[in-house]
């Protein structure tokens, strides 16, 4: 009975978000003008960002719902995918680092806004493969905690290093996150499906970070982004101290 109520709730939420996404009051026509209202630039960004967030939440609900299309396949594959896509949100150290990648990419602008969120999941998948094949990686938890600290610092300072430097930094941290994900594969579930799931889940978190980073188009938004970077950095300090066993 409990699962039935959860399923109905998920269906209801998906329906509401879908109606919000399909609401054409905030859509653009082919010519690039607003269909119903003469929006200012600020109102346009607000409308686009609101629609973007509704889309991200809708996709998340569809993918993690027990009623999604993957639920009727092979048990190991569906279980592995469901575990993988929900795994990145189960640990705050992963969540804040993933969001920070999106925030930093939004600050840097093109091409980093796309390159960083694409490179991170790809390298993370490689790290997971290393873990699944039994290759050790020393200091995984410390590396994950340090990633939150450094990425938060980059956002706080609005640091703009060359693309090769920012890409190398993100890739190095992705290796630690991927190795941790790979080492937590649930017993008896498909490693490939699990990897695809957490890569997609990570990509969605990056996308949310980029969406939030859109507020950087305003001066007050830049301040908010830098404050968010400070919070991520402080979280990294806490994770780092915890990984060293001081809060055990």
Notes on the structure:
The chain has 248 residues and is mostly helical. The protein folds into two domains: 67 residues; 171 residues, no CATH class. It contains nine helices and no strands. The longest helix has 25 residues. The N terminus is likely disordered.
Query: Secondary-structure element order, as H and E?
Result: HHHHHHHHH
Number of strands: 0
Number of DSSP helical runs: 9
Number of domains: 2
How far apart are the first and last residues' alpha carbons, in Å? 38 Å
Cα-atom radius of gyration: 19 Å
Question: What does the largest sheet look like?
Answer: none
> How does the helix and strand content classify structurally?
mainly alpha
Helix content: over 70%
Globally, the shape reads globular
Mean pLDDT: 74
Strand content: under 5%
Catalogue the unreliable spans: 1-6, 20-39, 62-78
SSE layout:
Elements lengths: L1 H20 L19 H24 L10 H12 L5 H17 L3 H21 L7 H18 L5 H20 L8 H23 L5 H25 L5
Task: Put the structure in a nutshell.
This protein is 73% helix and 0% strand.
State the main characteristics.
about 250 residues; mainly alpha; 2 domains; globular; disordered N terminus
